[in-house]
Amino acid sequence: MEHVKFGITDYRVSRLGLGCMSMSGVYGKQDDRECIATIQRALDRGINILDTSHSYGEGHNQELIGKAIKGRRDKVVIHSKTGSPKGKTADGINRGGGGRDYLRQVCEESLRRLGTDRLDVLCMSRVDRRVPIEESVAAMAEMVKEGKTRYIALSEASPETIRRAWTVHPIASLQIEYSLFSRDPEPFGNIKAVRERGMGFMAYSPLGRGILSGQFHSVDDIPAGDRRREHPRYSGDNMKKNVALVRQLEEIAAEKGASLPCLALAWLLHQGQDIIPIPSSKTRAHLEDNLKALDLVLDADDLARIDRICPYGAAAGTRYPEKDMSRLNV
Questions:
Q1: C-beta of residue 192 within 8 angstroms of C-beta of residue 159
Q2: At the fourth CATH level, which superfamily is domain 3-210+265-299?
């Protein structure tokens, strides 16, 4: 497993991380024993950065990770997001999460759940429009001084917000959605802003919430009750258009002797040594397939062909339901 310097930190992390969200019932059923075995297999294979959140499974996710890494804490970089407060504000959209008291509570609860005395990276899940970013960063910086976390980070932050945040305290990394179906960080300047400051870049939902896994070719393939049924890219004509793109990518994957998710992850890995995809796996089988992306070489012709199929804006539909879009890239 290749390891690279993680932004401004002194950590060296695996080129592929492990997103743990799906281990807490977000996308259908899961088995705790298999999830723990998956985390431990990931560590055995050299993956050393785990992404979790205070909100995943209302604490279940962090407790699960705590069990899985017991006795191996010093081998793991824990990137823990703050989640958002339960409920909604009067506008029905902005749930906040940037206040000092909330950030402190979340950090301390996360430490208890994970069974550790410090986080490696505390990441604010969403920029709170009601709280100046300078105040949110100052609150997290207090926790750095207290030893509760070594570094702080942001998720779904715009280049301007990143600039303002840095006037208060160094930001270790940015986590934002990035995949063949979500290439916003390129034209919106997020990647440029990160690289100008030497930050780490974590690509979440690198398989487009499953559509780039090849599992879904119609909305009927999505289990009942799965929240992806509410996402625009899985609905009606959007789904038909997106499946047509998937079919073309599957042809390339077949030619390369790889699975579609392997191809999609390999494309991300080819975008730069600083891009760390964090696919969510809840089984060892999915983990092992994802790891094959590390060995899949794409030449200039392959990359150009993929770009022709999936340039910026190719995917039909927004990446979240309309009510959630205002919380992105703030």
A1: yes
A2: NADP-dependent oxidoreductase domain (3.20.20.100)
